[in-house]
Amino acid sequence: MTLFAPKTWLKRADKPVLAAFGCIIVLLLVGSLYSSSFLSPEYLLQQLQVASFLGLIATGMMLVILLGQIDLSVPWVVTVGGMMSTAAAGWGGMGETLAIPFGILCGLGFGLINGIGVAYLRVPSMIFTLGMNAVAQGLMVLRTGGFAPQDHSTDAMHGLATGRFLLNIPNALFVWIAIGAATVFLLRRTVLGRAIYAIGNRERAAYLSGVPTQRVILFAFMASGGLSAFAGVLLAGYSTKAYQSMGDPYLLPAVAAVVLGGTSILGGRGSYLGTVAGVILITLLQSILSVMQMPEAGRQIIYGAVIVAMLLIYGRQARQS
Q1: Rounded to an integer, what distance in angstroms lies between the CA atom of residue 175 and that of residue 180?
Q2: Which residue has the higher pLDDT, 293 or 124?
């Protein structure tokens, strides 16, 4: 029996997840050819620190995609989180204490509106969240007058994003691990997690079986908004200030990371381990493309091609099933 155990394990393993981790190994080997320090512990920890910001956004995006929906308001909700947390920091002592929760609360507010629009008003998520992204952009431009804000992050924000208080491991990585562990527990051990998968497979069937589909969808969009804003808070702490369009580089990478990890963009299928692999894969790919001096346009083409390819693959699987 033990002789066949590896084969049995491979059959049960999620092939997209294995493929993602295989690509990570390939990228590490390729990166080591361009830089001798690519495989050093310090460089890898730095990459994991950068991956933590994308990991928070991808976590919320995964919950939404598992429902068969999409959240296109991510770019400016990230910016809202960063700008409003730094704005709160300028209110004085109490503002510094409330800066982080205030930024997250603003993201939750946008997620709440997205959830109401999609779950209760039945507006397609692609249209509604794109509109909310424009609303968030307009509000931030109105607040700053179109100029870079003069607010700065608090010491707590900076320490959470860049500090290393335990075993020289970035604090941002611990934040991602905590959020990831909570997400795994949610998806695997709770009724809410099973409801998310059920709605993604077939919303009408889930509704007829007694699942409160509207509340579940509302929760997923609020989680996406809150985590996107939290990532914005950390990004503001990382750079010590917020800035216009700080979330723009994260929309396509977040979607690409989720689908690369095996989550069906049509909903109902996916594991958080795959999302983790996808985030690390995208981060390493970004690092290698930077070393190769690939222009931003080329990177966006690569992310878009990945999403289209995975959509074609999962679309065929859905039709065959």
Answers
A1: 8
A2: 124
63 occurs within a structural domain: yes
Question: Would you give the DSSP letter of residue 250?
Answer: G
Domain count, the chain: 1
pTM of structure: 0.91
Transcribe 279-314 into DSSP letters. HHHHHHHHHHHHHTT--HHHHHHHHHHHHHHHHHHH
Residues 143, 83: contact at Cβ < 8 Å?
yes
C-alpha–C-alpha distance, residues 290 and 34, integer Å:
11
Query: What is the domain range of residue 118?
Result: 40-247
* Sign of the CA dihedral running 269, 275, 277, 279: positive
At 39, give phi and psi (nearest 5°): -100, 10
4-57: pLDDT as tens digits: 445 544 445 577 788 888 888 888 888 888 777 778 888 899 999 999 999 999
Longest dimension (CA), the chain: 69
d(CA 229, CA 95): 17
Residue 276 belongs to some domain of the structure = no
Which token pair is 104?
A: 């997250």
**CA dihedral sign of residues 12, 13, 14, 18:** negative
Nearest CA to 151 out of 49, 246, 225 is that of: 246
Q: Tens digits of per-residue pLDDT, 269-307? A: 899 999 999 999 999 888 888 877 778 788 778 777 776
The verdict on residue 12 lying in a domain is no
CA 73 to chain CA centroid, nearest Å: 12
